[in-house]
Specification:
4 helices; alpha+beta; 50s Ribosomal Protein L17, Chain: A
Length: 146
Amino acid sequence: MRHRRGGFKLNRPTHERLSLYRSLMGAFFLHERITTTEAKAKAIRPQIEKMITLARVAPDAGPTQRVHQFRQALAKLPNPPAVDRLFKEVAPRMQGRPGGYTRIIKVGSRHGDNAPMAILELVGAMPAAATTPAPATGTAAGTGAS
């Protein structure tokens, strides 16, 4: 019986699932916003929150403890640029926040397989609508109008 054995399997073997989580977390910490399926966003959200909490308490600790926490983060996410950005940029911004560092915004379905898509982003990040480029004025390229 699997009573109280929660978690997201995502229809993948363990090594593929863990590799997927590491890849998504690395992209998230580098870009602070990723677009993925709702299931994947819900699966990695708790792990991202724990990583931010681990990095957030690092400035209060001594130098030995800080190195230990950095190495703990590298063990979970073997992507040094992402971990460096987590400790130097993301964690200091979340210093006064007692949890709830991320939000999931549902954005509709993916073309092709109709999978529900979502944006996973940091709470302090700019809204997704503000980052989309404005449409170009004038004629479209390649329409033949001169």
